[in-house]
Amino acid sequence: MLRTDNNIPRNVFQELISEIVKPDDVESIKLHEELSPLIWDGYEMKKNIRSILLENARAFINFSNLEEYKFSDIILTGSMASYNYTKHSDIDVHIVLDFKQISEDIELVEDLLKSKKKLWSKTYPTEIKDHEIELYFQDINHPHYAIGVFSIIKNEWIKKPVKEVIDINTENIKEKTADFINKIDDLKKIIHSENFNHEYEKLKEKLKKLRKTGLEDEGVYSTENISFKILRNLGYLDELFQLKNEHIRKKLSINQ
């Protein structure tokens, strides 16, 4: 029985899915006839847009104290590099480098760079005509799944987007998402248990596998990938992280 599933109305899930996949009708994604005219002249990136995106990327690199490292590329990806953009779409810019330059402990590097990204976003929220510029560091050894990928450095397409009809199975997404919400809720109940760490790591691994499997098998519009993004947008991934922190804090504290 999916307890949480019954507490999240269908229309709420419809809205969440709409925010993520950006369709007018969540059952089938409707594509524009052309790429966003804000960014593109046909398939060519506008010069002023390219200039400001490069400037943002350089500033982000300096902010993160990573100027000494070698970067492979700076790319535009996501909905603004495809036909399914909307007025709410972010401009996703990924700075590609080999994380092993920083440390062999890739998980540590990922956590560090995520922290830098969050701090940057809070300190310098930038945008182009109401579209937020979202900057990320991307490991060159980590596969990146996207409909379109454009090299801002080389000023050329790495993967030119194509128009394709995508079907979204709302009920499957709702069921899978609710299953993970229930698992997180169950974890809250054992936060003071010795078994917490084991169950936490097991759930964390399942979440990693959820997105990886979906992207590898069906791409960005897979049930698994959309479920992962809904969990993130609802705040459940942050909540899971906070549970771990709370568990550690309790172990290191004396309350009586």
Could you name the key traits of this structure?
256 residues; alpha+beta; Beta Polymerase, domain 2; 2 domains; six-stranded mixed sheet; two-stranded antiparallel ribbon; 7 helices
How would you portray this structure in words?
With 256 residues, the chain is α+β, with helices and mostly antiparallel strands. It has 2 domains: 4-28 and 168-251, no CATH class; 40-159, 2-Layer Sandwich (Beta Polymerase, domain 2), CATH 3.30.460. The chain contains 7 helices and 8 strands; from the N terminus they run H-E-E-H-E-E-H-E-E-E-E-H-H-H-H. Strands 5-6-4-3-7-8 form a 6-stranded mixed sheet. A two-stranded antiparallel ribbon has the order 1-2. Helix 4 (170-189) packs antiparallel against helix 5 (196-217). The radius of gyration is 20 Å and the shape is globular.
What's the assembly state of these chains?
Answer: single chain
Q: What is the tally of beta strands?
A: 8
CATH fold-level label of the largest domain: Beta Polymerase, domain 2
Question: What sort of overall outline do the alpha carbons produce when their principal axes are compared?
Answer: globular
Total domains = 2
Sheet-strand content, in percent, reads: 5-15%
Order of helices and strands: HEEHEEHEEEEHHHH
The secondary structure category is alpha+beta
What is the CATH class designation of the largest domain? Alpha Beta
Low-confidence stretches: 1-6, 21-29
State the CATH architecture of the largest domain. 2-Layer Sandwich
The major β-sheet equals: 6 strands, mixed
Terminal-residue CA separation: 39 Å
- Record the strand order, biggest sheet: 5-6-4-3-7-8
What is the average per-residue confidence, as pLDDT, rounded to a whole number?
82
Radius of gyration: 20 Å
Q: What is the helix content?
A: 40-55%
Number of separate helices? 7
